[in-house]
């Protein structure tokens, strides 16, 4: 197991060997858990947690790979150098004293509210990453097939497609529910009993859960919850919520359940079954210290209005069914069509973001506005590009043009619309009023094509080792750029530097082979892991 010897410098560590070593152990843990071999799972987990390979990878993931790696904990340390990384990996164990977390408040997307995020110190982050490596394969073998949030290889689009598949044959009643303060209220003892690990690891996880919180100058000790922001927190929350689908199936085997983190829905033809499911879930959640949030929990119907509700919103999409004649309702003539579109709140939030950029950029050059708007438009449309979004994209293109016209005319109140149009806009592919500065043009929402997403097959997990399947899925991921999708296909899902397959959680970067970022020929571009990209540049330097 001791692949990386102490004489290695950080930049010369053979990461591909370490990755292979750790993954082999994780796959063995996954298979042992699938087979119900609990003692073997614990033995393999202890082996992984003591492995120098795993410790080095854990340190790399929190100090180099992680996009939020330069956020400081209570000790003020934002980043560590290669020598400090090696020292941290060398001293990483399950006995160290856990330090308090630093709480910061982050605005919720499209809202004025803020949510708390806990930032552990670097050592605790690395420790959590290491433990996650050991626990995740065990629980991936146990988790329900219709749980999609914060799991490797699964995403929002899998959850939405699962709902679409469940609504093919009939209109259904829906329990559309949200758990109140899920991350803040999970009972620690119940969670630790459920994890059911060996004493030393239980104590370490307990210390994470009970770690003090510094919010400005205020220090508190939590009595419940898994702090949002910790590396292992999403996994721990998923473990706490595991079992909800079994409760639903115990009431009716024909009831459907989909969960993404703390948001979930239950579907069934019978209103009484839905009401019974709600009662059963309230009791079950109460046993782990949680409850449903009344203001965000309702019963509705996908086809017919019920108590003033029709259809429901989930993960930014609106899902409902529309009455149709049997000749217009698809091949089977069911009399209805299921349409999944961007929700009104999602559209409103996106327009507010565009408006905010234009309001703050009244005096900015056109190129700066385009550079700010393009990532926002691209990210939003790619997220919604898997469903029936064409009409929404056309409408948003129109609304954005109107806002841009107002923005440009405010800059030149004495000029005519014709003059403003010639100065700021061009015609592109038959579309007029495309913002253009001579080099850059603004993306139109309607440029984004609609591409159906294929849901993950059953209970598949990246720990099954089927790299061909996972590479093909990665290349089709909606929010991946065309450039990266193309390169994944060209490279057959393999990083040319370390020769390992790309994983679903990997951070990927495009490398220009000759060092010239203006030379964008395909034979000059490679897709690399972020840490591989760092190593290539340091070697070249």
Characteristics:
alpha+beta, 541 residues, 4-stranded mixed beta sheet, 4 domains, 4-stranded antiparallel beta sheet, 44% helix, disordered N terminus, globular, single chain
Can you describe this structure?
Pfam families: GIIM (PF08388), RVT_1 (PF00078), RVT_N (PF13655). Residues 87-319 form the Reverse transcriptase domain. Its EC number is 2.7.7.49. The chain is an alpha+beta fold. The protein has 4 domains: 15-144 and 181-239, no CATH class; 241-342, no CATH class; 344-447, no CATH class; 466-540, no CATH class. It has helices spanning 15-34, 38-49, 52-65, 82-91, 122-140, 156-166, 182-185, 188-195, 199-209, 233-241, 244-251, 271-286, 344-360, 366-384, 390-411, 417-424, 467-475, 482-490, 530-540, and strands at residues 101-107, 114-119, 173-178, 213-215, 218-220, 256-260, 263-268, 298-301, 312-314, 317-323, 336-342, 425-428, 431-435, 508-512, 525-529. It has a 4-stranded mixed beta sheet, with no helix packed on it. A 4-stranded antiparallel beta sheet has the order 6-7-3-8, sandwiched between helices. A 3-stranded antiparallel beta sheet has the order 9-10-11. Strand 12 and strand 13 (431-435) form a beta hairpin. The longest helix has 22 residues, at 390-411. The two termini are 32 Å apart. The model is unreliable at 1-6 (pLDDT under 50).
